[in-house]
Write a structure and sequence with these properties.
By secondary structure, the protein is α+β, with helices and mostly antiparallel strands. The protein has helices at residues 2-41, 43-61, 84-94, 125-128, 134-143; strands at residues 67-71, 103-106, 112-119, 157-164. Helix 1 packs antiparallel against helix 2 (43-61) and helix 2 (43-61) runs parallel beside helix 5 (134-143). The longest helix is centred in the first third of the chain and has 40 residues, at 2-41.
Length: 165
């Protein structure tokens, strides 16, 4: 009986983990699509879209069982600073101690937390790189006066998608 319960728990945990990863994937894909379309108009428009649509897309891809979002220690949006449970794992990724595509952490409340790195792509460098157009950066600073999400190079981890379930 005990073995059956362990197998049932592990199967349920794995299924929930897969659902969390799927929700994160949907969130990332939708956000990227919106930003690419906005960039065709202008980088300033992309900042507006990110400011307004990212929270809507996040809410659309979260539910009562699985909450998702984005965080960074160099956050642009002040609401996207890592929670306490994330800090040790983020530090391990930053020190190259973890190189897995995602990490699952047991939380104090019996739930699970999942962190998946967000790699900086060339398109991201327009707003998050080392050589941001001054007009664009002025737009960014209007929306995010305490912006820290700059100075990245392609391939670096810029932040993390997260899920709690």
């Amino acid at each position: 009986m005990k073995t059956l319960l362990i197998i049932l728990f592990m199967t349920t945990s794995f299924a929930t983990e897969e659902k969390a990863l799927q929700q994160i994937k949907s969130y990332g894909k939708a956000l990227k699509s919106e930003l690419k379309a906005a960039m065709k108009k202008s980088p300033e428009h992309a900042v507006e879209v990110c400011n307004l649509k990212a929270p809507q897309i996040q809410n659309k891809n979260s539910n009562e069982n699985i909450k998702i979002g984005r965080v960074s220690t160099k956050n642009r949006n002040p609401n996207n600073f890592p929670k306490k449970w994330m800090l040790e794992t983020i530090q391990a990724y930053q020190q190259n101690k973890i190189q897995k595509p995602f990490t699952v952490v047991s939380l104090e409340n019996g739930k699970q937390g999942l962190l998946k790195p967000i790699k900086t792509m060339p398109l991201c460098l327009n707003c998050h790189g080392t050589n941001i157009d001054p007009k664009l950066y002025s737009t960014i600073k209007k929306k995010y006066p305490n912006d820290k999400a700059v100075g990245y190079k392609a391939g670096q981890i810029r932040g993390f998608f997260w899920a709690e379930y």
